[in-house]
Amino acid sequence: MHRLAIIGLSLVCVVGIGCSDRPRMGKVSGTVTLDGKAIETGTVTFEMTGQRPGTARIENGKIVEAMTYDPGDGIPVGEHRLAVSATKTAAAATSANPGDYKATGANYMGGASLVPKKYLDPTTSGLTATIQSGENVLKLELLSK
């Protein structure tokens, strides 16, 4: 009888009812602007003490594909500090003198940040969000000054 109970409990865990070590999640969408203009592309990072950080992409000013563990799974329920990063497209690596980056002023590793430095770090951004089970719609309004 004891063996049957262990098998039954294992089956419940395999099916995924009540044995997940993952927190409750909420879906996240919304918008991100800088001085009232949509940020074309970038990333929003969600940070909460004791939880794995979550991320969402910014596409045409919209928050899409929020995830923490698996694509589209959402963000853990709770109080989060946020960071926003967005960069210009890196410059082309073409030059009459290969290795002479000063000739073009190019940054081949990545483009310049489109948002003020304070927004790149969740501890300095001043951005927070309370994520709840279900749908969450955020409106992040960043300012350049």
Automatic annotation (TrEMBL):
<protein>
    <recommendedName>
        <fullName>Lipoprotein</fullName>
    </recommendedName>
</protein>
